[in-house]
């Protein structure tokens, strides 16, 4: 046992560690490589009724061989095993609950396994700043939206509060991933940690401080809508990657096509009052616009808001506004534009 560390463990804690280790070794000799203490005892903020969180690391294949749950003086202790392969997965930063790798004090080392453990910790630290974490954050945002949907159809305040709390927790996990952080201080410290992040959606902090104080279906649904909208816009803004040269050319070429042939088709459809053709031109143009700009543009335009207007001329203006906006997204329109004023010019210069 490693008893010379700085962790202040009581005799009770050491007794539990020793007895658990002996029991496991009695069933499966020599399978324990490392034992570490995590949670409140590791942090030093434990109270008299705190349990003891142990991370018992064993060889792969033995992690499901032993579990134990017991009570001592009104405190429940939950003992289970963790394999190296599970820690390897945790080192890839799959979620914010990776405390076992980031914050743990070793109390037993069978040999030189601590080096393997600290290598995985280093790997995890490197993963915290990986841009891929933003994509993982979307998974939590999608879960938050599912709870938001349940909240919006809730007819009872208690049911609504339940889904609001679930939604907020998924948003918390989303923001941990965006900021490359992990849950460090336990469940109760999550609000403090989230509000300390450097990257938060605009206005999120105010809503976040008040969500658990709300009463009534209306206020809860309104606040949830604001939080989902703010987080959605925030995640979209993080995905605005620089436009590459190849994408720049694609946007420029699309602008040429839409600002000439397609605009002319629209004008003919308007003259004929052909609403079917207008709708289809709008639809296909919107598809092209979104395919080209969806990864680079946060505040995307939509043609279909103008279809609520009664004036057919307004359709042409809305279309013109969109293709003008498309042009601003490419610096290469003039570079790639081959505009011949006459057939003679084309014959001579093409």
Written description of the protein model:
- This protein is 57% helix and 9% strand.
- Helix 7 runs parallel beside helix 10 and helix 12 packs parallel to helix 13.
- A five-stranded mixed β-sheet has the order 3-4-2-1-5.
- It is built from 15 helices and five strands.
- The protein is α+β, with helices and mostly antiparallel strands.
- The chain folds into three domains: 118 residues, Beta Polymerase, domain 2 (2-Layer Sandwich), CATH 3.30.460.10; 107 residues, Four Helix Bundle (Hemerythrin (Met), subunit A) (Up-down Bundle); 105 residues.
How many strands?
A: 5
- What count of structural domains? 3
CATH architecture name of the largest domain? 2-Layer Sandwich
The termini sit apart by 82 Å
What summary fits the major beta sheet? 5 strands, mixed
- Tally of alpha and pi helices: 15
Gyration radius, in Å: 29 Å
Biggest sheet strand order reads 3-4-2-1-5
Shape: elongated
Low-confidence stretches: none
SSE pattern = HEHEEEHHEHHHHHHHHHHH
Structural class: alpha+beta
Beta-strand portion reads 5-15%
Determine the fraction of residues in helical runs and give it as a percent range: 55-70%
